[in-house]
Model the fold of this input.
Amino acid sequence: MIDFSYKTYGDKNSQPLIMLHGFMGESSDFDSLANRLQENYYCIAIDLPGHGQTIVDSETDYIIEKTSEALIQFLDEKKINNSHLLGYSMGGRVAYYLLTHYPNVFHKAIIESSSPGLKTEQEKIERVQKDLFLSKRMRMEPIAQFLDDWYSLDLFSSIDKNSEAYNKMIERKTKNNIDNLALSLKYNGTGAMPSMWNMLAEITAEVLLITGALDKKYTSIAKEISSEHENISHEIIDATTHNVHFENEEQYYKTVENYLK
Done:
């Protein structure tokens, strides 16, 4: 069983918007964005397993199938229906699973800097080994050092590492439990998740993919998907890499608000 921790913003009678954060994030990552969106939407930002204050019973709760099933049960229990969905990176992978396996639950979806998995078995094998190595490394060094190395990756090259916003983000992430993060990476990393490339046609919701212009990998993935599916569109935000909603919140907010309207 998964006991989700979550934050809400806005009037519960407004259109619901479910928000799923990325790896090493938490519901508070969306504070600024949700505070702007709450005028028109009932935003529900959820801590995914291994993150924030969400509690899980067993390691199997980390896998994407169990997490997604629990999220649907959560929405049913809260009597939340006809909602929109927003997912970033890891949260975007969960969003792909929800949209392909529970196609009638969500009205519109925004997926930022994410993919529906890996196409070949060899890619999955290689990525599983990489994720396992990374999860072991996480347990062997201080989380502050791991975060410093993580945000030195090209994926985050355009983030201002000297900004107050960045320092506050890092401070939030250091509060996560390193063992839980490692389990999340092991069981819910890109290599561990099932490929959903062949299931994209099952998506009935309207979907907007958002990527940063400097994030070549995920922009290429989004271009391929949007070119093959009429109900999936793609917006590219200039001068940003992987974490678009953090790097250019103003443009991200305008893009999301215009799309949901």
The chain has ten helices and nine strands.
